Amino acid sequence: MKVVFKIASILLVLAFVSTGCSRKKNTFVSRNYHALTAKDNALYNGYNALDDGKESVTNSYVDNYWEILPVERMEVLEEVTLPGESKDENFARAEEKAVKAIQKHSMNIGGKEYNPQMDEAYLLLGKARYFDQRFVPAIEAFNYILYKYPASNKINQAKIWREKTNIRLENDELAIKNLKRLLDQEELSSQDLADATSMLAQAYINTKSLDSAITQLETASQNTKSNDERGRYRFIQAQLYNALGHKDSANIAFDRVIELNRRTPRIYMISAELGKINNFDYENGNKLELYELLTDLEENRENRPYLDKIYYQTAVFHLRDGSDSIAQTYYNKALRTNTRDKQLRAYAYETLGNMSFDRAEYKNAGAYYDSTMTNLVENSKPYRIIKKKRDNLEDVIYYEGIATANDSILNLVAMNEEERNIYFEAYIEQLKAEREKAEKEKELMASQNTGLV
């Protein structure tokens, strides 16, 4: 009898739990069961996958410091993602977990949702689609939160993410309007305020309203909890000041990046130092102090990953200071670092070409311009300018070769036999040296082009 009683009791409890946990019944047990199950299972795993995917997106993005940096590090790919496909399996998994949480744990009874975790599930769904670059479906998920859960504590995040997505869809004016309204009407948490103002700054940058972008980035840098973001926002502020021609304000912003030191990625600090150097006043500034700073940056072992940028800026310094031979040395040192920065290589080769041209070394100049073009986007405006300059050198190089040959023939005729033998021996040695030099340059070019994106 005791065994029968225990079995009956267990069955009764199971029946009670299964009935109490029904998605169609608004009970205390049911609400808490589905909320906890959704949060601790599907949503937890979904956000882990989302974080892994975001890390991959961020790490694969290569910043172009020759241009104003974007607020968010994410490259938007041109290829269209077809239904059922995903650019990253982590985002597909995050979306799958969000959908699972909605399908298995939603308690939509009589048109009202009783599971307090469903707004979080739709937010995860929208974020997964956003990073997977399916922006229209992402907006649908964020809009669903705004329509279905107006009292949600995630409502402000949903609004911010919707405008992030609008900016990706190039709806900048709409994003500006909606973000300004959000900032005017709501009391946001510090991080939400940082996220909203940084996105508003991006929309202003896209619409060329640089002054307004600077103001919003100041608010974002003061309120973000992330020092990575703080360093980036301050650096972008400096770039914007430079774009507006306000070098003094730019240098102050660069100093604020440098002050963060190890609390923010080192690339921001090094780029800020080089940004200040690029703004140096060569008429009134202390050149000795600047030279010492460049030397310190070059000799600091922690700066080895950035030697290409440091060598290049050192070359610019010496060129502006009139030390052409030292400048040439540093341009070549920058190129020998095997830098992946194609724009830096293009600028270095072009400058070396111009220096050779000014010395009437037209053949060398032509070779440098050829190397310049290999590092530029074909048929772009900079490419066409260099190509025109290179084409104009063809006749000069041709006739220079003829003149050199004629001079050599006349000189040979005037020589006696002993002098001619000495001449030809020296000429053969010269050809050997030139061949060895050409082979080394070919190897250098091959190594520089290895691993480029």
Summarize this structure as a short list of keywords or feature phrases:
mainly alpha, Serine Threonine Protein Phosphatase 5, Tetratricopeptide repeat, 1% strand, 2 strands, two-stranded antiparallel sheet, 453 residues, 19 helices
What does this structure look like?
By secondary structure, the chain is an all-alpha fold. The protein is built from 19 helices and 2 strands. It has helices at 2-20, 28-60, 89-105, 118-131, 135-148, 155-168, 172-185, 190-206, 210-223, 227-243, 247-260, 266-278, 287-299, 307-320, 324-336, 342-358, 362-374, 381-414, 417-448, and strands at residues 108-109, 112-113. The chain has a two-stranded antiparallel ribbon with strand order 1-2. The longest helix has 34 residues, at 381-414. It is elongated and about 105 Å long. It starts with a helix and ends in a 5-residue tail after the last helix. Residues 11-17 and 25-40 have low confidence and may be disordered.
- Total count of helical runs of at least 4 residues: 19
Class derived from helix and strand content: mainly alpha
Helix content: over 70%
H/E series: HHHEEHHHHHHHHHHHHHHHH
Give start-end ranges of low-pLDDT stretches. 11-17, 25-40
